[in-house]
Amino acid sequence: MFGRGTGHEQVVFCQDQASGLKAVIAVYSTALGPALGGTRFYPYATEDEAVEDVLNLSKGMAYKNALAGLDHGGGKAVIIGDPKRDKNEGLLRAYGRFVQSLGGRYVTACDVGTYVEDMDVVSRESSFVTGRSPDNGGAGDSSVLTAYGVFQGMLASAEHLWGTGTLRGRRVGVAGVGKVGRHLVGHLLDDGAEVVATDVDPAAVARIRAAYPAVAVADDTDALIGEPLDVYAPCALGGALDDRTVGILSAKIVCGAANNQLAHPGVDKTLAERGVLYAPDYVVNSGGVIQVADELHGFDFERARRKASGIRATTARVFALADEEGVPPAVAADRLAERRMADVGRLRGIYLGS
């Protein structure tokens, strides 16, 4: 693992045979403060696949937290298993013990396969847990501000490309209408956009149809991206943008909630060459981490929402730097995040005394 040159500070393997827990916690950086990032519960085919995912996700969290203006580094955890079958109280509490054992270097939250009620259980064994229910002093569902932030990123993208900060009259394709995508659809419809959606889960599609009868539904993601779209919003798992997808994509803006959307290095350049404006995922989907970070200071939703509104200005700043330096927006976002991690992180070298 260390030969991979990932740059991570710490990778911890966690196992409790009695409960069935198999987890990996990755801390990419604590330059800006304790690493903050969610726990993904997913049926990975192999342990190597789980490790690869947690390494990528934790690095993305470091960059996300940096550009969100948070005093947090980046971390992530994955639990290997089927959350519908394998999740139980003992497993979650055992996981909480491992989080606690890191002494605050890593602060966890919800992610794919984990929910507010799960964080309530984890928090019974650890004080380094966010995304808890309001009854337990938490912020509740972080997908609310995640979706809001993605919508802010879309407005910045529309303004940059079309000169108007609205999606009114535009056709937006949303791939994945679960926790985040569902809220995003609501924002888009309120703004006057036309929405076409898809999801691998028939129940998620049924919920969208019931809540928003005006939404059109595509059979699958391939059918969705093949439709005439103005904006494509990947809101499911990562790797949504590969060479094949980019080659058939009709949308002129890509802005979605999924993490690690670029399947491999170079996809961002291909998007730019095809005239597609890509809003870097970790810039626009940071509303959730802004929400859970606020929980650590006594949660105030309106305060967190105001901070998440800044995603629009941050996205615009990324586009401006990309134009100024002649690089894709993904490269510009990385440069801004790395500058903040370096500039603020170096202050840790100033001795404060005891």
TrEMBL record:
Transmembrane segments: none annotated. CDD domains: NAD_bind_Leu_Phe_Val_DH (cd01075). NAD(+) binds at residues 176-181. It catalyses: L-valine + NAD(+) + H2O = 3-methyl-2-oxobutanoate + NH4(+) + NADH + H(+). InterPro entries: Aminoacid_DH-like_N_sf, Glu/Leu/Phe/Val/Trp_DH, Glu/Leu/Phe/Val/Trp_DH_C, Glu/Leu/Phe/Val/Trp_DH_dimer, Glu/Leu/Phe/Val_DH_AS, Glu/Phe/Leu/Val/Trp_DH_bac/arc, NAD(P)-bd_dom_sf. The active site is at 76 (proton donor/acceptor). Keywords: Branched-chain amino acid catabolism, NAD, Nucleotide-binding, Oxidoreductase. It is found in: Cytoplasm. Pathway: Amino-acid degradation; L-valine degradation. One of its GO terms (molecular function) is valine dehydrogenase (NAD+) activity. GO terms for biological process: branched-chain amino acid catabolic process. Gene3D superfamilies: Leucine Dehydrogenase, chain A, domain 1, NAD(P)-binding Rossmann-like Domain. It holds the Pfam family ELFV_dehydrog_N. Its EC number is 1.4.1.23. GO terms for cellular component: cytoplasm. Residues 140-349 form the Glutamate/phenylalanine/leucine/valine/L-tryptophan dehydrogenase C-terminal domain. Belongs to the Glu/Leu/Phe/Val dehydrogenases family. Homodimer. This is Valine dehydrogenase. The lineage of its organism: Bacteria, Bacillati, Actinomycetota, Actinomycetes, Kitasatosporales.
